[in-house]
Write a structure and sequence with these properties.
The chain has one domain. Helix 4 crosses helix 5. The protein is 59% helix and 0% strand. It is built from six helices and no strands. It starts with a helix and ends in a 23-residue tail after the last helix. It is mainly alpha-helical and 167 residues long.
């Protein structure tokens, strides 16, 4: 399992790990690396911020942003592990060769599906301000890189990671 998820140099694995690092929007928070223990225990991971004397107070994330970053890290690692496993099974069992574009599309589909589920949970099921804030803190930096982000993006279906679909 360690080889499959972290050490295998097959094209899908390298591409997915690169896409995950690219999706991670928190440049001031270090990527924790990749090892099997981190993936298996991803549900317990929390992002820690190292206080740097030279950084402005505005660049230092608050607790809400750290909780959002921790949840995003957990999401990315769990979705990464599942997608690597699925693609490996397709490659080994079905002898399928995946193109870069297909792998990227499947990664974006996976992440957008999770974003959609989080938005639905926050706006239609829980309707709790605290939970909605957690979803905003989890996804906002990822989505902000896509361009203009509407103020009410949690209620809008056209907001996606990787591309913006017009209504």
């Amino acid at each position: 399992m360690s080889h499959i998820l972290t050490h295998c140099r097959s094209s899908p694995n390298r591409i997915i790990w690169d896409l995950v690092r690219t999706t991670w929007p928190h440049r001031n928070l270090p990527w924790p690396g990749n090892d099997l223990g981190m993936i298996l225990g991803c549900g317990c991971l929390t992002v820690q911020y190292n206080m740097n004397q030279n950084q402005d107070q505005e660049q230092q994330p608050n607790n809400a942003h750290l909780r959002g970053a921790s949840q995003l890290l957990q999401i990315l690692l769990s979705e990464l592990a599942f997608l690597i496993w699925v693609l490996r099974c397709e490659r080994v069992i079905h002898k399928k060769i995946h193109s870069y574009q297909e792998i990227k599309s499947r990664w974006l589909h996976t992440i957008n599906e999770r974003l959609t589920k989080d938005k639905i949970t926050a706006t239609m099921i829980k309707r709790n301000k605290g939970f909605t804030n957690l979803i905003v803190n989890t996804w906002e930096k990822v989505l902000a890189r896509e361009g203009d982000l509407p103020n009410d993006w949690t209620n809008r279906c056209e907001v996606l990671v990787g591309s913006r679909v017009q209504p």
